[in-house]
Amino acid sequence: MRRLNRKETLKVVKELDAFPKIPEDYVQTTSTGGTVSILTFMMIAGLVVSEFMYYFDSRMKYSYDVDNDFNTKLQINIDITVAMKCDYIGADVLDSAGDSAMFKFSGRLKEEPTTFEMTPEQKSWHRTLQTVRKALSEEHAIQDLLFQTGFSSKQSQPRKVDAGKRPDACRLYGSLTTNKVSGNFHVTIGKSIPHPLGHAHLALMIDSKSYNFSHRIDHFSYGTPVPGIVNPLDGDLKITNESLQIYQYFIQIVPTKVKTRAAKADTHQYAVTERERAINHGAGSHGVAGIFFKYELSSLVISVEEVYDPFWKLLVRLCGIVGGVFATSGIINSLMGLLMDVICCRFNKFKSDKSNQAPLPGHHLDINQSPAAPGILPSSSVLS
């Protein structure tokens, strides 16, 4: 076989075509076909753009498994403001093993004298959190959007305190690390002290009528704070007029593994049930005034992963869009052409039939202008 030169190779490639071509003499261009072609290309362009947008958009994949991690610790992140001075209250964690996080584990809450009244920035942020929480309770699909956008329920800006106002509240914030077992975090009267026989708080001699456990929860979470998770207690606000008031939060914690473009960490989510009541020993309502967070851990672990479609799926969809639209537009063009031919043929036939009709009665016929048939005289000659 002789070797082809470059020009001959290009000629062979150009002439090589697996698809038959119709000669241009056999193709008839019409305005209907041009309109359908323009609409077809516009539709293909719109569908291709939307397909690319769908391809670059991610989806959240959820999976569930049994939690078999028993060696890690549980981190509690707290930012609470109580409407009492810091000298009168204390906060710590006591787990089911009888250990207190204030003395046996790492971390300690910080106390900051502040005002209970919020600044305009704080009020705006609390309204935002409450709106997001309400939307989540009504539509759970919003959680996927929060994971994708990386919305954080923890305020990044530092808190501002009006220097002209006298502090009337105490802010408790920080992180505590405890055993990964059920426990109880609480804020009550007095400072927590080590005691060989159990857990105790040393309370100052203050009048119980001056107790006020109205509180605001700016942030309360378990594990590493992850963007995309809005905790059920973030932005919560409780106001009471009773001096002896007990607030109880019953929390069910679910370990969660998050792997998104905004974060990759092992954290925890939780659901909460609230209860509050006034303490009145005379009426049989007993207890200790304070704020109590009783939590338990679930035996399941949730894995949340942000996934994308593979590239080959995009190619398949694009081929399906282009081929399907072209085939459909060809069928529509043929149907429209057939319809136009039927309408035009009937119109032309009706027009030709109308032109060949005989004169209607009452119309004058000039016999002098019309030639007579051979062998037949005009009627006037016969009468004469």
Give the secondary structure arrangement, pairings included.
Layout: H1 6-15, H2 31-56, E1 59-66, E2 73-82, E3 89-95, H3 101-104, E4 110-114, H4 120-138, H5 142-149, E5 169-179, E6 183-189, E7 191-195, E8 198-202, E9 215-222, E10 236-238, E11 245-259, E12 264-278, E13 290-297, E14 300-307, H6 311-355, H7 379-383
Parallel strand pairs: 11-13, 11-14
Antiparallel strand pairs: 1-14, 2-5, 2-9, 3-6, 4-5, 6-13, 7-8, 9-10, 11-12
Radius of gyration, whole Å: 42 Å
Mean pLDDT: 79
Using the alpha-carbon principal axes, give the shape.
elongated
For the termini, the CA-CA separation is: 103 Å
Count the strands? 14
Secondary structure category: alpha+beta
How many structural units, i.e. domains?
A: 2
Helix count equals 7
User: What is the H/E string?
Assistant: HHEEEHEHHEEEEEEEEEEHH
**Strand content bin:** 25-35%
**What proportion of the residues is helical, as a percent range?**
25-40%
Largest sheet: 7 strands, mixed
What does it look like?
The protein has 384 residues and is of the alpha+beta class. It has two domains: 30-58 and 309-331; 62-307, no CATH class. Helix content is 30%, strand content 30%. It has seven helices and 14 strands. Strands 1, 3, 6, 11, 12, 13 and 14 form a seven-stranded mixed beta sheet that branches. A five-stranded antiparallel beta sheet has the order 4-5-2-9-10. A two-stranded antiparallel ribbon has the order 7-8. Helix 2 (31-56) packs antiparallel against helix 6. It is elongated, with a radius of gyration of 42 Å. It starts with 5 loop residues before the first helix and ends with a helix.
